[in-house]
Design a protein that fits this description.
The complex is a heterodimer of chains A (422) and B (348). Chain A is built from 17 helices and 9 strands. Chain A is α/β, with parallel strands linked by helices and 422 residues long. In chain A, helix 6 crosses helix 9, helix 12 runs antiparallel to helix 13 and helix 14 packs across helix 16. In chain B, 35% of the residues are buried. Chain B has a 5-stranded mixed sheet, with helices on both faces. Chain B has a 3-stranded antiparallel sheet with strand order 10-11-12. Among the domains of chain B are: 74 residues, Ubiquitin-like (UB roll) (Roll), CATH 3.10.20.740; 56 residues, ADC-like domains (N-terminal domain of TfIIb, Single Sheet); 67 residues, no CATH class. The mean pLDDT of chain B is 95. Chain B is elongated. Classes of the chains: A alpha/beta (422), B alpha+beta (348). At the A-B interface, helix 12, helix 13 and helix 14 of A face helix 2 of B.
């Protein structure tokens, strides 16, 4: 198999996830040390690296940090979004169970950059064993003076607390996550104000994905130029890709941004099991676009994906072989979003349930004239009009199937096995 | 101040104003459902969609803030199409039995459907509504008509601060709920009825509203007689009789009332209501004029003061009088009669 390019997962699995001593031995916490010595330059360094958020939105990390750094407040927070709820995404879990100290170090660097003294890791409820590891690793880091008060003897305080969610997909949305932490019903807030200015308990709050934060230590140590030597011009660095579905070697792999889906499918994942032919790939996660196998040469890069009609998202690839039925897939995905909609805004609450009903009509061969237009009209309204990313992106799989497989819905019938269009 | 252009017309608004406030200032109507003046804007129902030049997605007027040089369009084909879908989505899971609905004529969803030419939603019902709750003394709750604008929940929490109403479940199964799934009768509800006043549809309706239609009513703005706060309210009058009360937006009440102001109006036409003063003679109460009654009281006070001194007299004022009347009463007791024995019935 192709050699991985390990930045975030460097030494992951080689050392104890708990022991900060072992992490220090492989050069850990050197990025934090550098950050503490040159606080003013952290944000410029991160900006120069071109790092973009790895949770799906791809927002420039340095820019986000600068908003919060420039906001005056008596208290600021760093929240790590570890509510990894996107079906088919497991990358953050791997980081947290194999090398959590890199995450703590990244959080501390961000905290020093913006002047936050308290950090939280919002961990999804379905990862209880990850909580055990994180708690032990946090306790160890605190014992070693790496987090807590006076970190690394610098006079700076920064502690990290674990917060465990209650099992809701939408709480991965940053403002719903904050409401959930504040003890409220987990529902997205109207933006602006953005969390960077008014976040947790009304204070400026940096919310970043586990993978994004875990990139910061290496950027601090090796510099932006080195970071830019990997990945693409507009999205440098590596990415953790989760390969799942009909693939011989499912798993989480780290490769430079811009690696093609074909490389990941053939050389990393080993193709479909049992010699089956690939039909389609869902890119970016459960709310990402589904593309046909003919687009396999698309590089996994934010811009290239957008251009080709794929989704970069959180770097997930779900492979579907020739036996898959796309209407089944769409039904399954839409069921998920219908279940997980928080119910706050009309287009998502009422829209997902209607999408599901319409998809089922097509799947059962009972769709009426006009249903296809209605599906399209509703999908477009949701994409532009829902309050948060859940409703805005849940029609993506449907719209991409409508684009790449226009006959599928027109056929208006469900005949398993007949739908291998690739 | 900020300068912006709405539908081609320039307007100046204060910093921090929403697009909706700018539109209101110009007399441009933008439909709203989840918006209520005194509630924090949620921007959740999405009916107030407008276009802002240079911004790809539609913006939501009730919560989006104005900025310098902003150019807003409040109506075009895209906006109308978007609003139409929102209305159709709401109608799909809304019991449209408008003929028997107490909210007929005042229903905001009905008006929107009419305004946007929607006779029937192209979407179908996808949820089974929760059962009705008719246990309150004063109002009914029919979840089948609820459009989840949450005006009731937010009024209960943000303005009334009673925190009885909240939401349960999520997605399309979300419903307005009382703690621990209780019914109104067994809950912490104080029957202030402000949730009912806030409801845009027939989901929360007063029990009395079955007996009138909104177009049969005349409204009279008045001050609530129950206490000295001076809440403003509208009496709903049908054929010369008060059949209901709705809170108005007054200096002392942000569109809310208490249980007495909202529901205790039936004394107005009640046969037991006293219409003249009564004087007790030989154990029997008999009607008297105000002059007779006041003379009787004045003489009595004078006599007791002469016989036993001012400390033998106490004054007890009514909470239903205004603050000014109570003040004057206190002055009368202390200055004219000469006693500090004065109290008030506000011991609720």
């Amino acid at each position: 198999m192709m050699e991985q390019v390990r930045v975030v997962l460097d030494h992951a699995g080689d050392i104890s996830p708990i022991s900060s001593e072992e992490y220090l031995r492989i050069g850990g916490y050197q990025g934090l040390k550098k950050a503490l010595e040159a606080t003013e330059t952290i944000i410029d360094t991160i900006k120069a690296s071109g790092l973009r958020g790895r949770g799906g939105a791809g927002f420039p990390t340095g820019l986000k940090l600068s908003f919060t750094a420039n906001t005056q407040a008596d208290q600021k927070y760093i929240v790590c979004n570890a509510d990894e709820g996107e079906p088919g995404t497991h990358k953050d879990r791997i980081i947290m169970v194999e090398i959590p100290h890199r995450l703590f170090e990244g959080m501390a660097i961000a905290a020093v950059a913006v002047g936050a003294s308290q950090g939280y890791i919002y961990l999804r409820a379905e990862y209880p064993y990850v909580a055990t590891i994180l708690e032990q690793a946090l306790a160890d880091a605190r014992r070693q003076g790496l987090i807590g008060s006076n970190i690394m003897g610098s006079g700076v305080d920064f502690d990290i607390q674990l917060f465990i969610g209650a099992g809701s997909y939408v709480c991965g949305e940053e403002t719903a996550l904050l409401d959930s932490m504040e003890g409220k019903r987990g529902e997205p807030r109207f933006k602006p104000p953005f969390p960077g200015v008014q976040g947790l308990w009304g204070r400026p709050t940096i919310i970043n994905n586990v993978e994004t934060l875990s990139n910061l230590p290496a950027i601090m140590v090796k510099g932006p130029k080195w970071f830019r030597s990997m990945g693409t011009e507009r999205c440098p660095g590596t990415k953790l890709f989760t390969l799942c579905g009909n693939i011989a070697h499912p798993g989480v792999y780290e490769f430079p941004v811009g690696t093609t889906i074909r490389t990941l499918f053939e050389e990393v994942g080993g193709g479909c099991p049992r010699g089956k032919k690939l039909m389609a790939v869902q890119t970016g996660g459960a709310s990402g676009n589904i593309i046909p196998a003919s687009l396999l040469d698309t590089p996994m890069d934010i811009d290239a994906c957008a251009e080709a009609g794929a989704t970069f998202g959180a770097g997930d690839l779900m492979f579907m072989d020739e036996d898959s039925c796309l209407l089944d897939v769409l039904e399954n995905l839409t069921e998920f979003f219908e279940e997980e909609s928080c119910g706050k805004c009309t287009p998502c609450r009422e829209g997902n349930t209607q999408l599901l009903r319409l998809i089922r009509e097509f799947r059962n061969g009972t769709a009426q004239e006009g249903d296809l237009n209605l599906l399209l009209e509703l999908s477009n309204v949701m994409r532009g009009g829902c309050l948060c990313g859940l409703g805005q992106s849940s029609p993506n799989p449907i719209l991409s199937v409508l684009r790449f497989y226009p006959d599928l819905f027109v056929e208006n019938s469900y005949r398993k096995g007949d739908l291998a269009y690739a | 101040m900020l300068n912006l252009v709405v539908d081609g017309q320039p307007v100046q608004v204060e910093k921090g104003s929403t697009i909706l406030q700018a539109c209101e200032k110009m007399g441009i109507e933008v439909p709203t459902l989840c918006y209520l003046k005194h509630l924090a804007p949620e921007g959740a129902c999405r009916i107030c969609a407008v276009e802002v030049q240079g911004v790809k997605n539609l913006q939501f007027a009730c919560a989006a803030l104005c900025s310098e040089g902003m150019e807003v369009t409040t109506m075009n084909e895209r906006i109308a199409g978007f609003r139409r879908i929102v209305i159709e989505l709401l109608l799909a899971n809304h019991d449209a039995d408008c003929f028997s609905c107490p909210a007929v004529g005042s229903c905001e969803l009905y008006k929107l459907a009419m305004d946007y030419g929607i006779e029937k939603s192209r979407f179908k019902r996808t949820k089974k509504p929760r059962p009705k709750d008719e246990t309150s003394e004063f109002f009914n709750y029919d979840p089948a008509k609820c459009i989840l604008c949450r005006r009731c929940v937010r009024t209960c929490n943000e303005i009334q601060s009673n925190r009885t109403l909240s939401l349960r479940d999520r997605g399309v199964r979300t419903s307005v709920s009382l703690p621990f799934g209780k019914v109104f009768k067994d809950s912490s509800c104080v029957s202030c009825g402000n949730c009912v006043s806030a409801c845009p549809t027939g989901a929360l309706t007063t029990k009395a509203s079955k007996h009138y239609r909104s177009w049969e009513l005349t409204r009279t703005r008045t001050t609530c007689p129950y206490c000295g706060v001076g809440c403003q309210m509208d009496l709903l009058v049908k054929e010369g009789k008060v059949v209901g009360v709705e809170p108005a937006d007054g200096p002392a009440n942000p569109g809310i009332l208490c249980v007495k102001g909202k529901f205790a109006y039936r004394f107005i036409g009640h046969p037991d209501r006293l219409k003249t003063p009564l004087i007790r003679k030989d154990g029997v109460l008999s009607p008297a004029s105000w002059d007779q009654a006041l003379d009787y009281v004045a003489e009595g006070i004078k006599r007791i003061k002469e016989e036993s001194g001012p400390q033998a007299i106490a004054g007890f004022a009514s909470a239903r009088a205004t603050n000014e009347d109570n003040y004057v009463f206190m002055k009368m007791m202390r200055a004219a009669i000469g006693t500090n024995n004065v109290d008030h019935c506000a011991r609720l």
